[in-house]
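User: Here's a protein and a ligand (zinc ion). What would the complex look like?
Assistant: Let me lay out the input and then the predicted complex.
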Amino acid sequence: MAEFHELVVNLHMHTTYSDGSGSHQDIVRAGFRAGLDAAIVTDHNVLVSGPEGYYKDGKKRLLLLIGEEIHDQARQPQQNHLLVLNANRELAAFASDPQNLIDNIRRAGGLSFIAHPYDPECAPIKESDISWVDWQVQGYTGLELWNMLSELKVRVKNYPQAVFYAIFPRFLPLQPPVQHLNKWDELHRSGKKVVAIGGSDTHALPVKAGPFRLLIYPYEFQFQTINTHLLIASPLTGEVATDKKMIYEAFTAGHCFVAYDLPSSTRGFRFSAQGRDKNALMGDELPAAGGVTLKVWLPQVAECRLLKDGQVIQTWKKTQSCTHITTEPGVYRVEVWRPYLGRLRGWIFSNPIYVR
Ligand SMILES: [Zn+2]
Ligand SMILES: [Zn+2]
């Protein structure tokens, strides 16, 4: 199989144009320090396209792309947040009807991802339920499998816990909420192709508690946590339009995996398949006829689980590479787990290979 080029992309973040505390420049600086290849800003209900482009720092370069997070601000509660990438036009006016919004995004050549699908009320931090509820919609690209803020809302049961995770954010990420994983598997079982991405949902919010001041989940920290790693066939060129096209084609194809990069970089992870007549990368389809060899490569020894249609069918406790041969059609995906800060935590969640 041809060698792919891997890009570390952090996506889903807010600036002062909506409810974030930083500027696009702050994001670029933090992106360089975190070692990102690209960052995708998604302010609420506003497309601020001006800052899009390449930024340079010595020999390093970072591509800043601009999308948008759209929801109906007249709706109570304010559920149904949709991440809109590559539409290149303002579509927030369509927010009241999610299906119409998705259709208009497609017409504009854009991608749509259901943001934080399960995002329940969290009383200790006075946050309301902003889950996705209109599941009858069709034609969206995928969903945000792992979002650190919705994981916080799922896990925090009382105020001391909220304070703990505010001060020690690296203890928070454990895994994508099971509600997200179950919904994703359910959509696959219904025959849909649904691309998973990971979002940081960075706001970098300053809070004051008595004499204490704290910046909650700042950009640079967040950019080292939940990332989406993309695989593209040829290296980036440095030309914005060309590279933007390659990046969004890879997102559309699901040539990506969701990763928690803080315990250790996940660069180098691969999940691919070899069929009788063709090869496949995560996100691709291939026929079962004649047998399929699924192959996983991990950047470090860890626990690797292979799932078929949402069920774990094989676990390798300590491995760096594994293979599984099958003739059974199904939706195959990989989860990688590793210990970090005293607990076994989700490290890598691949997009599936669809064996038909
Ligand atoms: Zn949101
Ligand atoms: Zn957001």
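Summary: The helical segments are 24-34, 98-107, 148-155, 159-167, 178-189, 219-222, 240-253.
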